[in-house]
């Protein structure tokens, strides 16, 4: 973490605007606690990425919440490219002052420089590829590949750092860990998948009951998360010998379908 933090601090010195990607389903849990301080003197844009997987009503609440804190907050669906033009417009608007200043002095302003930051799996590489417009090889994550930093011009006045800044998630709160595991931000191996699923089901069973009924043909949502997981396993044929239900297989199905948005548009956190 110390090394990651040092690298981020270095990268931040090069740019004007930080674009912080959050997972729209878990804006609280996917927000890095230290970034506000590290990027104190930079313009910032919050992108609620994967907004296509989250509950539209809740997306709106989060957008209002961040706007009330005077943060620029944009809903994005990276694969469909939704919201990306607004990100570029916002970048330009944020830097308007320095552009005007340069003009008034008869100078041509240099391009605005921005970088993407976010926790693992939030969509950083996809976002960069999409906003750049063509697929570029992101080689930075592979050990042994060294390459100099590159700026990619995404419009005449905007340049983007080609490697995203990697942020570490919060570690202290247990509920945060469950949310990060549910969405796939941290590896399943850190957690017991049936436990993650049981907690996930307890979180969503009342706000999203109808989605669960529809997807898994449940007869009821009685009992705790493990009971519901067992029903899902039974209905999906996750049976081991003697009719016992394989909760691990049921968990894999549930996690895959939740992460892929197959159950429906589900948000795990509200601003309140
Ligand atoms: N549904 C959906 N999936 C996304 C979105 N953005 C990224 N993804 C997916 O999330 C996964 C992780 O993305 P990646 O760019 O590798 O994340 P990184 O680790 O932050 O670089 C990939 O499977 C992407 O296709 C989005 O807006 N919506
Ligand atoms: Mg990546």
Question: What would you say about this model in short?
Answer:
This protein is of the alpha/beta class. It has helices at residues 2-12, 35-38, 56-68, 84-94, 96-104, 124-132, 174-183, 193-204, 209-216, 225-235, 247-259, and strands at 17-23, 43-49, 72-75, 112-118, 151-155, 158-161, 165-166. 41% of the residues lie in helices and 13% in strands.
Could you walk me through the main structural features you see in this protein, from its secondary elements to its overall organization?
By secondary structure, the protein is an alpha/beta fold. It has eleven helices and seven strands. Strands 1, 2, 3, 4, 5, 6 and 7 form a seven-stranded mixed beta sheet that branches. The longest helix is centred in the first third of the chain and has 13 residues, at 56-68. The protein starts with a helix and ends in a 13-residue tail after the last helix. Mean pLDDT is 90; it is low at 135-146. The structure holds guanosine-5'-diphosphate (GDP) and magnesium ion (MG). The site of magnesium ion has 3 residues, from helix 6. Guanosine-5'-diphosphate (GDP) binds at residues 49-50, 52-53, 76-79, 118, 120-126, 261.
